[in-house]
Design brief:
Chain lengths: ~200, ~450
């Protein structure tokens, strides 16, 4: 995973609530075996509507997605995060993100930014009024800034370090081999084994 | 003080705890399927890592597989082959298509007795919450986390909050477990459980069969919850005893001692508590494109302007997509297809309930009816009871096990504009096929709807 410190750029005002991962990337895209190449499938059904905001050329090159509450709900498919990254997004801002989506985002360097609904609404308003509005997200300080708007978001220390350093989490955990092995010796005998 | 059920299971699985870090938890069982795992196995290969505990890892094929005699389409076949190849290479047991144990991952694991109280279970599928019905702490994970669990048999997670949903009283006779969970989601919303593990409690939950509890925990994710659980009790123990992977002899007694401790302590508190009156529940039908957009079958399509301000936009969009007019009685809405299946409602009890409704009747002309058992084991059980004949005689297609029309990854899809009464768990736009319109219902309502041609209760049928 690439380290992420600061994201600066345009924002796409999606601003719909309860956007599920089936909308972000429809299931037929999940038949692929790769981690990349999902960009063309992003919001595939909605994109067929010429008026859909993602088709608006003024927002081309947006790196921040301004989403509604409960964005990323539904299926656990990490492909939703891969599709957003593939289409150039580096952060999602919403009043609340679905749990699994947030976990998946953190593990791929897509910055999950949860801020109060009023601030999201202000950012959406700014991006709609002026699509060239620049939003800056600082991972180290947990801040979101746009002209006249400033908000902070919650990020635990571990997640922050993971983003800033682009940590290989498996390598980190494998260093805890002693703890894992010790735990295993104390597991009850009656727990099931598949083979 | 005291601890809740989910806290007890969590604490018992902490491998490492450090300030400012998520807990590192041990995973007792990792379930794997063909769709979300290939990139994880690729990651292992690239980093030259092995699967730490193949003996705690089980794979099957369910999302993509054909449920009839047709071969899988090329791209799905590639994924099915990749699953078989990865299982071989990394030494994992896999129940492939054609195996008598194959089926939807959340149906086969409880059925085999692999899902047991107090275990931690993860799978690259959000409906892993299903396994909480037996008192396991089970949740869905993404592909990066799958790779992490394969390599380390652990997972780093921040501790979730706790939430109690207490369902008091006696459920009306024409209501099923599906109506309980749809009623709960209608009340708390699609994000009502976000960040929390829900523990379902109360007399109405205790009175449910294991199949019913599996249906309820299955849809915890539709309320946004990290997981759902029911404290194990005599229903659980009776259901588990004698299953292939359940403990036997002295080990059964040891396990039972531990399992009986898996209840929320009297003094424990939850971060959030909700109480539902079971006696006030009715059979539900969803009208919209998220599982909270529902009314009882006696109701009508709502006017978005009558809804709370913040849900009007999505209601308007949903009604446009669903092609429904406010004020239309649910019983007047005709369907094109009926799907009885999925990890939500394709266990033997669900098939028995639906068969009882259609016995001696005919599916309304023009309606495509599909019955897809949750596992080949369920299929065999149903055929021993003659349920297949009842469905086939009524005009349903009787299929092999798989996820099928729940998510439209195999050829079982709705055509654009088709309307479906479905026992699955998601009514998202396009979920059952692009342009398809889904209404979530219980197995008996699905069955009655297939006969009547429009949404109906069994008691509506003549």
């Amino acid at each position: 995973m690439e380290p992420v410190r600061r994201i600066v750029g345009r924002a796409l005002p999606l601003a719909r609530a309860d956007v599920d991962t089936d909308q972000i990337i429809p299931s037929h895209w999940l038949k692929r075996l790769e981690r990349t190449g999902y960009g063309p499938g992003l919001f595939e059904a909605w994109r067929k509507d010429p008026a859909f905001v993602l088709n608006d050329p003024r927002y081309q090159g947006a790196v921040v997605l301004l989403a509604g509450a409960n964005f990323g709900c539904g299926s656990s498919r990490e492909h939703a995060v891969w599709a957003l990254l593939d289409a150039g997004f580096r952060a999602v801002i919403a009043p609340r993100l679905a749990d699994i989506f947030r976990n998946n985002a953190l593990r791929n360097g897509l910055v999950p930014v949860e801020i109060d609904a009023d601030s999201v609404e202000k950012l959406v308003g700014a991006a709609r009024r002026d699509p060239t509005t620049t939003i800056a997200i600082d991972v180290e300080r947990s801040t979101v800034q746009a002209p006249g708007i400033r908000a902070t978001f919650a990020l635990d220390e571990f997640s922050r370090t993971r983003l800033l350093e682009g940590l290989d989490e498996i390598a980190v955990t494998l260093r805890q081999e002693g703890d894992i092995a010790a735990f295993e010796t104390n597991r009850p005998e009656w727990l099931p084994r598949v083979r | 003080m005291g601890s809740t059920l989910s806290e007890k299971v969590w604490e018992r699985h902490v491998v490492r705890r450090a300030a400012g870090e998520p807990d590192l938890l041990y995973v007792d069982l990792h379930l794997v399927h063909e769709v979300t795992s290939p990139q994880a196995f690729d990651g292992l290969r690239l980093a030259k890592r092995r699967v730490r505990r193949p003996d705690l890892t089980l794979a099957t094929m369910d999302h993509n597989v054909p449920t009839n005699d047709e071969p899988a389409e090329d791209i799905s076949a590639r994924q099915i082959e990749a699953m078989a190849r990865n299982a071989r290479e990394f030494g994992i047991r896999c129940y492939p298509t054609g195996d008598p144990n194959q089926g939807i991952v959340h149906v086969i694991s409880p059925q085999l007795g692999l899902t047991q109280p107090g275990m931690t279970i993860v799978c690259g599928d959000s409906h892993t919450s299903t396994h909480g019905a037996l008192g396991a702490l089970a949740w869905g994970i993404g592909t990066s986390e799958i790779e992490h669990v394969l390599a380390t048999q652990t997972i780093a997670q921040t501790k979730p909050g706790t939430m109690a949903v207490t369902v008091e009283g006696v459920l009306p006779a024409d209501c099923a477990a599906k109506d309980v969970i749809l009623g709960i989601i209608a009340r708390i919303g699609t994000a009502g459980g976000t960040g929390n593990v829900i523990e379902y409690r109360g007399a109405a939950i205790g009175a449910l069969s294991m199949e019913g509890r599996l249906t309820i925990c299955n849809m915890s994710i539709e309320a946004g919850a990290r997981a759902g659980m029911v404290a194990p009790d005599d229903v659980t123990f009776a259901w588990l005893q004698g299953r292939p992977f359940a403990p036997k002899g002295a080990q059964w007694e040891q396990a039972l001692d531990y399992w009986r401790s898996l209840v929320t302590d009297a003094g424990a508190t939850f971060d959030r508590e909700v109480t539902i009156d079971a006696t006030a529940l009715r059979p539900y039908v969803t009208w919209g494109t998220n599982p909270a957009q529902s009314v009882t079958i006696d109701g009508a399509v709502p006017d978005p302007d009558s809804l709370p301000h913040d849900s009007r936009d999505s209601a308007r969009r949903a009604l446009r997509y669903q092609d429904l007019t406010p004020g239309t009685a649910m019983r007047e809405i005709a369907v094109d297809a009926v799907f009885i299946g999925s990890c939500s409602n394709a266990r033997i009890e669900d098939l028995r309930a639906a068969a009882e409704v259609v016995r001696g009747r005919r599916v309304r002309s023009g309606i495509r009816g599909l019955v897809v058992p949750g596992s080949m084991g369920v299929k065999a059980d149903a055929e021993r009871e003659g349920l297949d004949r009842i469905f086939i005689d009524a005009g349903f297609e009787w299929r092999d096990a798989g996820c099928s029309m729940c998510l439209g990854m195999n050829p079982d899809v709705l055509r654009p504009g088709e309307r479906c009464a479905s026992t699955s768990n998601r009514n998202f736009e396009g979920r059952q096929g692009p342009g398809g319109r889904t209404h979530l219902v219980s197995p008996t309502v699905a069955a009655a709807t297939a006969i009547a041609g429009h949404f109906a209760l069994p008691s509506d049928l003549r």
